């Protein structure tokens, strides 16, 4: 029973991806902030950007594991990667209260704070 908790088929489903992105983001946010401060002098990175990168990595990994990158033409690979980029945006927005972020007056880029 426990060996079928997370399968490749369940990982490809939207609610599971949203849950995983939210959990991984919560667990790794402080560590990523520490790395960004130590090596790049970035004091604060918005959680939305971190969750987008995490969801993109998850979706690209799922595409690779399911064989979406093997024996494809360049156009087909471009299509798979483009769909993963768009789907990562949707998953990240769902994991981070997307509607509130869209209607917010501040942009994400303006929230990034570099060390002076």
UniProtKB/TrEMBL annotation:
The chain crosses the membrane at residues 6-27, 39-65, 77-95. Keywords: Membrane, Transmembrane, Transmembrane helix. This is Uncharacterized protein. The keyword Transmembrane helix applies.
